[in-house]
Amino acid sequence: MAQKPSIPKGTRDFNPEQVAKRRYIFNTIQKQFERFGFQPIETPSFENSDTLMGKYGDEGDRLIFKILNSGDYLSKFTQFFNQRTIRFFEAYAFRLHNENIDVLEFLKNERASSTFYQRFFESELVGSDFKGIEIFDEKYESAIMHTIDENKDEVAILFNDIDDDFKNFDESRKLVASKLASQVFSTWLFNYDSKVSSIISEKALRYDLTVPFARYVVQHQNEIELPFKRYQIQPVWRADRPQKGRFREFYQCDADVVGSKSLWQEVEFVQLYDAVFSALGLKGTTIKINNRKILTGIAEVIGAKDKLIDFTVALDKLDKIGEEKVKDEMRSKGIPEDGISKLQPLFGISGSFKDQVAQLKPILASSEEGLKGIEELEFISEAISTLGLTSSTLQLDVTLARGLNYYTGAIFEVAAPESVSMGSIGGGGRYDDLTGIFGLKHVSGVGISFGLDRIYLVLEELNLFPETIAKSTDVLFINFGDKEALSCLKAIKILREIGVNAELYPDASKMKKQMNYANKRNIPFVVLVGEEEMITNTFTFKEMSSGIQDSVNIDQLIGKIINPS
Amino acid sequence: MAQKPSIPKGTRDFNPEQVAKRRYIFNTIQKQFERFGFQPIETPSFENSDTLMGKYGDEGDRLIFKILNSGDYLSKFTQFFNQRTIRFFEAYAFRLHNENIDVLEFLKNERASSTFYQRFFESELVGSDFKGIEIFDEKYESAIMHTIDENKDEVAILFNDIDDDFKNFDESRKLVASKLASQVFSTWLFNYDSKVSSIISEKALRYDLTVPFARYVVQHQNEIELPFKRYQIQPVWRADRPQKGRFREFYQCDADVVGSKSLWQEVEFVQLYDAVFSALGLKGTTIKINNRKILTGIAEVIGAKDKLIDFTVALDKLDKIGEEKVKDEMRSKGIPEDGISKLQPLFGISGSFKDQVAQLKPILASSEEGLKGIEELEFISEAISTLGLTSSTLQLDVTLARGLNYYTGAIFEVAAPESVSMGSIGGGGRYDDLTGIFGLKHVSGVGISFGLDRIYLVLEELNLFPETIAKSTDVLFINFGDKEALSCLKAIKILREIGVNAELYPDASKMKKQMNYANKRNIPFVVLVGEEEMITNTFTFKEMSSGIQDSVNIDQLIGKIINPS
Question: Which GO terms of the molecular function aspect are on file (chains A, B) (predicted)?
Answer without folding.
Answer: histidine-tRNA ligase activity
